[in-house]
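User: I'm writing a short report section on ligand binding and want a predicted complex to refer to. Could you take this sequence and magnesium ion and write out the structure as tokens? A short remark afterwards would be nice.
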Amino acid sequence: MRSAVGPDIHLLHDVHHRLTPIEAGRLGKSLEPFNLFWMEDATPAENQEAFKLIRQHTTTPLAVGEIFNSIWDCKDLIENQLIDFIRTTVVHAGGITQLRRIADLASLYQVRTGCHGATDLSPACMGAALHFDMWVPNFGIQEYMRHTEETDAVFPHSYSFANGMLHPGEAPGHGVDIDETLAAKYPYQRAYLPVNRLQHDGTLWNW
Ligand SMILES: [Mg+2]
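Assistant: Sure. The structure tokens for the complex follow:
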């Protein structure tokens, strides 16, 4: 990938919490020649001690936090300088005020922001995230995944994406509305994240 896109394109690798600490250390080390922008969610984030081990083995920048819910989930990783990007979101981590507190704490340790922004978050959250991003001095990057046309129609918004950049637009507030009449055409359907089981005995396992 690096040889295909050249040195100027940021490459980010999401590991989805799938490795053991020593596997993550080895992956980060082996990817150093390719100058990743970050390696994301290298190990299950519940065991924060793992990041000490990963950090000992690689200078590949580490990003974590899309499943964190408060400043307390971020505190030790930031204060011990075990990560380079904190990925908490407005909607998961207590709103804009709480996210600002996390970002200020992170700035003391030169940790930058990189808010999660996949389509499990609505355009309303993306609008709020962009306004947070415009403020935060230690901004790193904003994840963005296009919503479907149907979702965009239900949430008319002023933000736009072009050439790798997001612009919040000029509408007041967060610049995102909700068309409740249109939303009513899509009644709630019960759905679940994938359930992962070990092949040999069916044990419920993380994914
Ligand atoms: Mg991710």
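A remark for your report: The first strand starts at residue 12 and ends at 14. The chain has eight helices and nine strands.
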